Amino acid sequence: MLISGKREFLARALQWSGATELMRVLPARDSLLVLNYHRIGNPADDIFDPGVFSATAEEFEKQVSYLKRRLDVVTLDEALAIIDGSAREPKKRCRVLITFDDGYLDNYEVAFPILRSLGVQGVFFLVADFMGSTCVPWWDEIAYLLRTARNKRFSLDYPAALEVDLDRDGFTASLRAVIHLFRRAQNQDTTGFLRSLADRTQGDALPSCARRFLSWDEAREMLAGGMAIGSHTQSHHVLSQLSPEKQAEELSHSRAILRDRLGIAADALAYPVGVQSSFTEATRSIARDAGYRAAFSYYGGKNLVGSINAFDVKRNTVDYQSLNRFFVQTSISRVTGSSHWP
Ligand SMILES: [Zn+2]
């Protein structure tokens, strides 16, 4: 895999200079590093959003083996005790929690066997309405429309103006821009947005797909195999786009469905999209009232033990990156508690 970019270059320089070896002997920051994955596989084999692929199976196995060797990988229960302050440990260390969002079928078929064979728990945040389905969520639909667009240059005007030029800006940058527009809190008509995008792009209608999301039976097997499960809401609607009543429905219905289907009391929630604009102060209290003990965001940042916001636990993305960059990034996180680096 050829991956370029400033961070990849810097990672090679740090590795080459011995800086990462030096970081190994520095004391760890007392922190909880939460990594977030979406899909495991090769985006080149897929016709939808390549941005949700986090690693190939081979890379994922190497990443988890590395985490297990170098850091303390914790379970969801252990992480919750760190978050609420009930875990009192004298030793300062960087713990890692491995999480997955959306419940794609590859989470069951690929990630689960790897985690189980390494004896590491993953936390899988599931969307009730996606379970066992062939559903194509909005980000995958946007990607498909842009891939098959007959109009390479078009404009969108809702919820704000956006000019798209696929030839000039390329597929990846155009996709990020349209997804960014879609997930704005001002987007109150998500169906209309997609209809308008189909019209402006003149892209193809969605193809019929094989099953794309794991089933309830598979989720039960994952629980029995040592994995943990949390809620990623009922429909994956961006919560800040919804009224407080609708948000409460999304959070409490999905929790009730997990209880009925899997017999678990879901303690953890992952906000759909998870960026700062995707949930509000009201969302946090609705989540608490719905019975969750913690909710995870997705815009980076650090969780230092003793000052973790239980309803905004920071997670760091694992995007399609080289193993070298993953190793450097986690070495930095171990020492600083943060995954932010130049
Ligand atoms: Zn999601």
List descriptors.
342 residues, alpha/beta, TIM Barrel, 2 domains, six-stranded parallel beta sheet, two-stranded parallel ribbon, 12 strands, binds zinc ion
Average pLDDT, to the nearest integer?
93
H-E string: HHEEEHEHEHEHEEHHHEHEHEEH
**Structural domains: how many:** 2
Report the sheet with the most strands, covering strand number, pairing sense and barrel closure.
6 strands, parallel
CATH architecture of the largest domain: Alpha-Beta Barrel
Regions with little confidence, pLDDT below 50 for 5+ residues: none
The dominant shape is globular
- N→C terminal distance: 23 Å
Heteromolecules bound: zinc ion
Number of helices, counting only DSSP H or I runs of 4 residues or more: 12
Outline of the structure:
The protein has 342 residues and is α/β, with parallel strands linked by helices. The protein has helices spanning 6-17, 19-25, 57-70, 76-84, 105-118, 138-147, 166-182, 190-201, 216-224, 244-262, 281-289, 323-336, and strands at residues 31-37, 39-40, 53-55, 72-73, 94-102, 122-126, 153-156, 162-165, 228-231, 268-270, 294-296, 316-317.
